[in-house]
Amino acid sequence: MENVTHKQFMDNLIARNMGEVEFHQAVFEVTESLLPFIDDNLKYKYYNILERLTEPERVIIFRVPWLNDKGEIKVNRGYRIEMNSAIGPYKGGLRFHPTVNLSILKFLAFEQVLKNSLTTLPMGGGKGGSDFDPKGKTDNEVMRFCQSFMTELYRHISADTDVPAGDIGVGGREIGYLFGQYKRLKNEFTGVLTGKGIEYGGSLIRPEATGYGAVYFAEQMLKTRNQLMKDKVVTISGSGNVAQYATEKLIDLGAKVVTLSDSSGFIYDEEGLTREKLDYVLYIKNIKRGRIKEYSEKFKAQYFEGKRPWDIKCDIALPCATQNEITKEEATTLVNNGCICVCEGANMPSTIEAINVFHDSKILFGPGKAANAGGVAVSGLEMTQNSMRLSWSREEVDKRLKDIMVNIHQTCVKYGSETDDYVNYVKGANIGGFVKVANAMIAQGVV
Length: 447
Ligand code: NDP
Description:
The chain has 17 helices and 12 strands.
């Protein structure tokens, strides 16, 4: 067996997946750490695991026609990437955002496979969504879109096959409409979606899980350097689900969150957010569905239109908005301003060049597939509760979430520690997530 260089592997992948730049980026980052490991563990090469892992088991693309409030017919494109089911049913969110395309969903599905494996729960990886933009749509329009989307998707998913959840643009409201339509079409009440409302099979702590989990992960990273979260100045991007609950947990731990953002700009509150100020953010974003700018109109805070928060001085940065939102230049600014820890609440928010800056300067860097795995972990716990037809208490779910995040951190340290004791969490998460999936694939034969 010949050793394939990283360049040869990537050239082949790019030729087979032309123009899918986000997918190339995610695979590049993962295979960079995996190829040396595979060269030392020849069975993975013999079974050609990397090529199989980077080819989705199934890609579903479909038309989503719907009627707006004026009675006009609109058409969007729906997707579901069923990436890998070696260790459990496909599991991963649905994203509704105008930027959604095949490349973005394949990158997210690929990351999801390793992330789900890291949680230690039995979940394969998938991702889906649509280029539909819920912003500016009425509740009725969103409902009609969700019903049409599910009218095709329902035939490809089930509690034992593929279990979608939320992501950007898909929160409790959308999951409710999607679940209602699935139930109507299939005439069954099962745990086919996670992130459901608490009244109809949802889990306590699921809305909080990604944000809380990212903060628990950051706490573990800080602990390796004998540091605590208390009094740390934290910059956060985004003001959606992940950003909101990361902020809540940080406030409770005594940290000072000074920024939040949306796709229009960011606010800088030098005094830090409080619980009351955060309540107002939840009102702006979840009820009024407005812009983060309104925060600076209500409280003493600056607003920077069209900007991201990374040149604000901080101890810790938590990108919680979207992919590629920290460039090499922004990473350099963060490090030069004394940032000691970057913990990714979002998926792939740091470019490859930005990650190199963090690693070269030996600051703590927690990649999304480890740091934001708390969301899917509690989705896994929601599936368990649905199967058992019971609900655990808040305390019970939160404790399990914390244990899972501590466990993921230990796995990263196990596989990512380097000779100088620096923990490369990217390498640790990639190898730690890979081993279980690869071994299961080998055990199941050439399928
Ligand atoms: P939400 O839709 O609740 O919030 C997304 C936030 O990011 C909003 O503030 C939004 O601003 C901003 N945003 C979205 N796209 C862009 C963009 N292109 N440029 C700038 N800002 C943008 O999503 P979530 O909080 O659920 O997800 C945020 C990130 O976390 C995503 O990367 C997601 O994949 C990841 N994640 C989410 C999990 C979950 O459980 N929800 C689990 C694991 C990862 P605006 O309001 O202007 O659109």
